Amino acid sequence: MFPLFLTAMIIVTKPNATEDQIEHIVDRIKEWGLHAEVSRGALRVVIGVVGPEDTIREKPLAAIPGVESVTPVLKPYKLVAHEFRQTASLIDIGGVVFGGPQVVVISGPCSVEGREQIISIAKDVKKAGGRMLRGGAFKPRTSPYTFQGLGVDGLKLLAEAREATGLPVITEIMDTKDLEVIEQYADCLQVGARNMQNFALLKEVGRSKLPVMLKRGMSATIKDLLMSAEYILSEGNFNVMLCERGIRTFETYTRNTLDLNAIPVLKRETHLPVIVDPTHGIGIREHVPAMALAAIAAGADGLMVEVHNSPELAKSDGDQALLPDEFEDLVKRVRAVAEAVGRSV
Amino acid sequence: MFPLFLTAMIIVTKPNATEDQIEHIVDRIKEWGLHAEVSRGALRVVIGVVGPEDTIREKPLAAIPGVESVTPVLKPYKLVAHEFRQTASLIDIGGVVFGGPQVVVISGPCSVEGREQIISIAKDVKKAGGRMLRGGAFKPRTSPYTFQGLGVDGLKLLAEAREATGLPVITEIMDTKDLEVIEQYADCLQVGARNMQNFALLKEVGRSKLPVMLKRGMSATIKDLLMSAEYILSEGNFNVMLCERGIRTFETYTRNTLDLNAIPVLKRETHLPVIVDPTHGIGIREHVPAMALAAIAAGADGLMVEVHNSPELAKSDGDQALLPDEFEDLVKRVRAVAEAVGRSV
Amino acid sequence: MFPLFLTAMIIVTKPNATEDQIEHIVDRIKEWGLHAEVSRGALRVVIGVVGPEDTIREKPLAAIPGVESVTPVLKPYKLVAHEFRQTASLIDIGGVVFGGPQVVVISGPCSVEGREQIISIAKDVKKAGGRMLRGGAFKPRTSPYTFQGLGVDGLKLLAEAREATGLPVITEIMDTKDLEVIEQYADCLQVGARNMQNFALLKEVGRSKLPVMLKRGMSATIKDLLMSAEYILSEGNFNVMLCERGIRTFETYTRNTLDLNAIPVLKRETHLPVIVDPTHGIGIREHVPAMALAAIAAGADGLMVEVHNSPELAKSDGDQALLPDEFEDLVKRVRAVAEAVGRSV
Amino acid sequence: MFPLFLTAMIIVTKPNATEDQIEHIVDRIKEWGLHAEVSRGALRVVIGVVGPEDTIREKPLAAIPGVESVTPVLKPYKLVAHEFRQTASLIDIGGVVFGGPQVVVISGPCSVEGREQIISIAKDVKKAGGRMLRGGAFKPRTSPYTFQGLGVDGLKLLAEAREATGLPVITEIMDTKDLEVIEQYADCLQVGARNMQNFALLKEVGRSKLPVMLKRGMSATIKDLLMSAEYILSEGNFNVMLCERGIRTFETYTRNTLDLNAIPVLKRETHLPVIVDPTHGIGIREHVPAMALAAIAAGADGLMVEVHNSPELAKSDGDQALLPDEFEDLVKRVRAVAEAVGRSV
Fold it and tell me: The complex's ipTM?
């Protein structure tokens, strides 16, 4: 179905590996239908293994006696890779196009808290230049004793806010059971950082007709993120956007370490659009704008920024949301930087 | 004076906070029914906030103008804490007791691959002194192109292996949809590291009649692990065991960094049993025994160790599984160390 | 000499702390001339400790029996803090001013390798718009078997390059013994990431007449960086620039994780100029420009970028240096982004 | 076939690399006297490069146009490697032998604070079964405003304590300038974690007649630690011990994350003795014993544990030092675990 992708592994033997062991390694490799290339050094033998990746990946090469290390030299993902699709993927969500020359700003509150709150904020977002509305109905919270979201009622309010403003809406899915109901109300699914390797969920959204924004897990490498996206594409859903939202490091001043290095790396590795969430990334309201501007300068295709009209009274993450007028000011500054790097908002 | 589970937060104001702002902060705190204690320094004001934790946790203190930082000084978890239950929780699974003076060794293959494989390994585990059988039926794999487990057929084979040996069985749950079928066949649920903050799943297993082993996420702090356990207990299921299985650090020589520091810390913080998985923790077969012995010396209540009778042919994680005779030797050495620290196997 | 800075610590007692222990804690605090504020909860007692920071920092509060935790609530640094100096420090090095409205680009090769190399590159740097020349004479290399720099001969060549171009020069100091000779030839000292907590060296450069660029250590928090700068200022040298150059995380795709979050945080915490080194930060030549532009958008006062006229033949770090024409192109793009955020180059 | 210490690198070309580029890569490799092995895949070419390590390490392979990645497959260190010396190195310091069947416990206060303090503690250490005395005279402190050690007076007091007890003494060197004076008084040099990559200092202690204990840096990989040890051995000093003392991770409950995984890995990679410092490693007094026992079970050759007779009054690190009777109890428990793993104390 998909083109064959060559993979290679480099096996290094232990210094005391016997001739019998080396022969056994080579035999195994050949038995599995792979190609082996042997180079002998004074202390060790280096064996290159080449073959179709689906075969090579399955095989426990390091378990063969006499093997010291096994090093992959090619990438484990294919559908998400630029080698598979040379041009950038454009993802159209209700007329808003991600991945093209225009930078898209998504905004809204952390949680949908009530009709007045979400509609008022949606209008503020639209007025300021935001193009898509975010809002959580099912909330992943670290503590079981905090606000867990309005559930289906929250989804209905999001749909009302879309009618009131024309903005398409994105909301987080946390459980495979909720897919059907979310599909009725939302325009785009969000898979959160804590579920980035919830493979049951990835497969389920891979079968959805809605596009998916996949957020990077707190300890996920760029490669892990791409492998999780590969799960969704491999089920047939190619409308996937990747979102950098901060990784966990030893630094404690900021909530997370927003890893902007991921932007140029992802733009080179994959054809999928790359969005940045500076709000969760740095987690400190006054520093959100600096990181948003930096993300655009580094080449991001969009931003997701939290806005609340009354952060002091917010039921979640009030500490990091921008006020509507701060957001309006930010969009202006984002526009200036986008133009400086040859894009628009 | 304060209700049980008092929480406190320390607010520090910005150097340029106005008197009006400070008054507003104190007013907000009082409005929320909390107690405020103000200390004035040369440049900043320090305000202690004390009150019932469910209230205090909800409030976005850092969003109030003039606030520079908010620092919690008491713990956010309660049911899992030693303050809630002074004595160690004993968890009896098919006659095997976790959390008592005896150290329990769980073992088995990464995945159930077939009848002969699982029954043969189960017998090896039992003979060597293992007390519970592990085996994956639903497999969380980083790549969508690798072996994903036998599913319900795997569960049935686990139940057969239990009948053949008398060992209770533990298997991983990855999706809320699978709970019912797993409950039919297994004796203990495992929530994997990648799902440690899959809150929908935590709530679901919190309503199960089966005990749960919760594995620490790769970037989860000890506090995060306890908060996730709190989710399960808060739904009514108190039969929870915690499992340290390695965290993600900058070190690349080992697969993960098995964090044995978590053992004494968890034993002090919580009444729940603490299990250690050295196989995934260090991820290198020849170093698994050293880490297993160290875990017991540090005070772990049990071990989970992967065994395979033919690692070269294993469908997953063959690189790190012990051979049956290596496992038998390990159990002997574990016994010696357990006795040196006043326990038994 | 310096104004008194209030520090506060919050002590939380163990749940089983006795009245005698609590009394002893309070007595100790008073004996040390500090102020104690006691709040009693159901399970624990919270004691606020306030006093002059030099006193409070010395005292092993956590060693007093009955104490569970000690949490500092104010900052441990003073001379580097914005509270000490409200306005940005301007540092003039041979007529080039750091910390003002103009963004400064420093550039040059990793190592000085010979007269022709350094003079040719210096001319390229100047022509493209670089304002200061970098070049290593004493090289910190991970392996003892690689090129260790030209030493004093390298310093002399740097001075020649300055004469040829008018660019002031910066070079790394690795040993207190070398200060005198480096002072003869260079205009600015660099303390490298691996020596950020070499306190003997920090004190020595704190007594130098030359300005110092202090690079952030690979595992140094922002607070650690500020404390190391505090060492230099406390010896009397206030001409210090801070340089973010990437931290060590679990990510392996990039050489380091350039932490741009540090820029807005440092600009808020300290009056010292903040420089960013995207070359070592991301460590991949083709991605250096994206990170350089992002750094400027985030508010950096300057950049340090490696350039080499023949990277294939470079004796160190050839893999990440830009070619002169790539550098010239970068400076143009930096200018556009600087202007978009209200600055110039 | 190849000279001792063969190194290999695997080059993978970019998907769009031209035939000319591939030819140029191979030409360069041959020009440098190295061997190139070319394998062609559908999208990329894989080139194995083999040759003498000193040559191969110098060359900027990744800087050649058309190269996508360069992966080393053999180790960069040699003198420290087990391939260089098959048997364990025994290091005799004043009659105390490190690296043999007997586990050695080093102990003493963080800092030498006065004659009575150091002599009294030294006697306690000896009585409890400690074999070597530690104590800092030059102290690396994060803040310039805290106690910096007694300097040469501290060294003299250490020497007095040695005379009083017969215990050899170890103390930290922070500056190349201090080597001569420390050599007069101490029996073993300690290079601290913050100076693990202070290469000027490593070279200097490599020329000393005293043995060296090299502590692992907070963000140093195991490979980095071995490379730093290689610096010392390459200058002629083969009496080097490695000390694991905790790495920096995202976990904040413990001061550092003591990485016991490093013990079996180091014992396999190198012939040098491996010591563990649980005091700084976990940084919480009550948990030091658990980590000390675990270190011995994992195969450590020795321990370094801080003891103070009056932690509340200690001038540094009082929070984590054991009391003399706690230390005495610990040595007994260490003995039991050492015997369980076939060693003695």
Answer: 0.89
